[in-house]
Amino acid sequence: MTEAILLVGGKGTRLRPLTVNTPKPMVPAAGVPFLTHQLARARAAGVTHVVLATSYLAEVFEPHFGDGSDLGLDLEYVTEDEPLGTGGAIRNVASRLRSGPDEPVLIFNGDILTGLDIRALVSTHTDTGADVSLHLTRVEDPRAYGLVPTDSTGRVTAFLEKPQTPEEIVTDQINAGAYVFRRALIDSIPAGRPVSVERETFPGLLAEGAHLQGMVDSTYWLDLGTPQAFVRGSADLVLGRAPSPAVPGRCGDRLVLPTARVAPDAKLTGGTVVGEDAVIGEGARVTGSTVLSGAVIEAGAVVTDSMIGAGARVGARSVLTGAVIGDGASVGADNELRAGVRVWCNTTLPDGCVRFSSDM
Ligand code: GDD
Ligand code: MG
């Protein structure tokens, strides 16, 4: 097992405004573009050749990762002219694969933070002689995912992407976004048109009687598709709850990159990350949050479970909980922003213009 495909071409719509200027896999988590963690974990599991299937904002990947040698990888890039969907993207990179027809090829969704034992997934695949093997995890509410029921031997019996009706919710096991494909099956996906691996390829293979094998585990797993999940994942990397060899210089329950400036009495806790050249003012408290490069948190601000975009500003004494501030945005002093609030890139909120009152 030496090669992998990483699907990194999605638009990251649910993560906007973080993905307005940056594709989802390049948004920093624990101080480095999220993709770095996935690449480092793949390398640690023995993968040496990786093909990135890019589409949205494709041009930013190669200048950052180059030929992959910094990570000990041989990295290639393939960009779709039009988005081809997950299956189309896999098919579109087939010419770059070096494996023989029966050899296993790993495929990863580019937004999953997980402690998956990659070698164990490959062993499952080889031991069972499956055509495709899928990492599965259990979640409380499976509706936003692909449901994957299995029989008593772990063999997949159906694949139901994003179930619409209560009758379709037949299991709490979901597709965790990591597969091993027998290489020949990748070549059998139709070329040159959009294909969803979840809605078309997997159900089609099952109908043809192909052997799809599931491997369920209960290791750390998070889809970083929403701002809340992304901030949580970044904090979990810093806290060591999510494993990655690529977290730079962790220090207790916070990560402050070398060129950041933090006032001596500021409090940073809960896996908070402070990016390059960011500034944290006197008495500010930042918990479980990500402050991207060049952002400024002014004196006395209280920031919890929030994402502060590159070059953004949070004014003095403002209180942010579960908020997302786009790159270059400016939140004036004495504002109170609560869960789910998203301030778009480069916009300005004047001083004291947003408040919450319990007696309304
Ligand atoms: N190259 C390329 N081209 N990549 C794409 C495209 C495309 O047209 N569309 C999506 N991707 C990439 C995304 O960048 C992401 O890494 C991955 O494919 C999955 O897309 P998401 O948009 O994140 O899908 P999802 O989270 O709604 O659902 C998927 O992941 C779930 C687990 O988190 C499905 O695979 C579900 O079945 C699964 O449960
Ligand atoms: Mg996703």
Automatic annotation (TrEMBL):
It comes from the Bacteria. Pfam families: GMPPB_C, NTP_transferase. Coiled coil: none annotated. Residues 252-333 form the Mannose-1-phosphate guanyltransferase C-terminal domain. Residues 4-236 form the Nucleotidyl transferase domain. Belongs to the transferase hexapeptide repeat family. This is NDP-sugar synthase. It comes from Streptomyces polyasparticus.
